[in-house]
Each structure stands twice: as C-alpha cells, then as structure tokens.
Amino acid sequence: DAKTTQPPSMDCAEGRAANLPCNHSTISGNEYVYWYRQIHSQGPQYIIHGLKNNETNEMASLIITEDRKSSTLILPHATLRDTAVYYCIVRVAGGDDKIIFGKGTRLHILP
Amino acid sequence: DTAVSQTPKYLVTQMGNDKSIKCEQNLGHDTMYWYKQDSKKFLKIMFSYNNKELIINETVPNRFSPKSPDKAHLNLHINSLELGDSAVYFCASSQVWEQFFGPGTRLTVL
To answer: CB–CB of B43 and A101 under 8 A?
Structure first.
C-alpha cells in the first residue's frame, strides 16, 4: 500500500504557482520523498526527490516539513502542459526497488 | 533518442490467445520493470529484473512470464489471455534516483 495521502484533485490558474500537498506521516528515516507525474496516456515522469532539505530543479521545487511528515510540490508558473496526475511516493534510496504508486492528485490547469 | 521503448503501442486480441510485449532501454541501466495500469488508473508493479535476474515478482499469475535476453531488454509474454488482462502495461528502467518509463502498451482483450 502507498504510504502517502494526497487530495484527489486540484485546480490552478495558468501562470500561477501550483502547490500540491502530500502527507507521509509514517515515513522512515531512510526513506526519500519522490514526485512523479503522468500526463494523459503517457508513462510516468520523474520530477524531483528529497530527503529532508528543500530541493529545486528546472521543473519544480520540493518543500519538506521539518518533521518530514508532509511535503509540498511547487510548480512555480503552471502551464496547460502541466495538467497531469501527480504522484507523491516515499521509498528507500536506490534504483532497484519498486515504486508503489497511490492514487495521486489530478491537477487541472485552467486557462 | 528514445530512452525506453515498447512495442506494440496497441494490442487487441481475443481471449485465450498468447501475446508478447517487448521493451528495450538504451540508457545502460541494470534494472528494468513491468507495471500494469488498470481501468481505474491504479499503477502497480509486476516484475523487476536486475542484470537479467528476477528480483521482484508481485504475485502475478503464472500466465505472465517476463524474459530478459540481455540487460537492455525485458519482454513480457502472456499466455491464455483473459478479459481482466486488459490494461496499459508500462516498462521502466532505473538508475540510482529515478525510473524512466516507456510510453506504454494498451492491451485490449475481447
């Protein structure tokens, strides 16, 4: 079972920041927070990951609370192409283990 | 340059048939996966191979048999197809931090 809880859907106006929350209250000390997204009919795409510090890359920022029980993915200037299902995942670092996907958040970017 | 490719993209077949889906990655990764996404959009791991060896098998029926001829390929063979096998099947490969997914194969069993 997925160890994360996300709202089923969210709306965001085009050009505004999209803030997607995720609760992971049972996260273990060696587990990272990962975010993937799935645009309609495509394979999931990696966005970002972090352990305890905030992270930023060319796609998004990840804000992790100090107790690590929740996090927020921020898309700074959402575009219509950001419409997708966003999955928050916790997993141990390393590339060999499986990803357990939850239901994710369906993000609608409104023109 | 396609990182993870799958063939075919669409597959429509009758119940009881045997079919295969092919996956290839040109990223030099050691680990490859098969995931199934059903009609309710739940995405679940099926198998994982590391350097041609099976390391994860998530209680998938024996009708599903993955085969890895080399570490760049992980094919999925399905025997005696059933209606419930209709889904989108995604192949993926991984390096340390992220998994790269293929475009998916939409299987429809009639």
So the answer is: yes
